[in-house]
Amino acid sequence: MDETKFLFDVVQTLxxxxxxxxxxxxxxxxxxxxxxxxxxxxxxxxxxxxxxRLTRLEQDVKNAPKHDDLAEIYREMRKMADTLGTxxxxxxxxxxxxxxxxxxxxxxxxxxRDHK
Length: 116
Description:
The protein is an all-alpha fold. The protein has helices spanning 2-63, 67-114.
């Protein structure tokens, strides 16, 4: 009877140990699965955000000026710079003419004031 009781205690202890190990492994697997699910959800959210950002970038690139557009802008800027240069030269010439006229008028004024 003692051997049977001892054998029953050993079997019972082994069963409790096996149940404990199975419980520990099950909990570990559950925590691992929860962590993987959180990572998957996070990646999905980030990928959705990246998809939206990528779509916006593609739209911006699509609407960006092309090389031909930039070349046209540069041509127009060069034309405008040439026009401004021409206008600047004309204004300089007018300024010089007005300065000469002012000096002439000043000399005439001095002459007429001195020779009344």
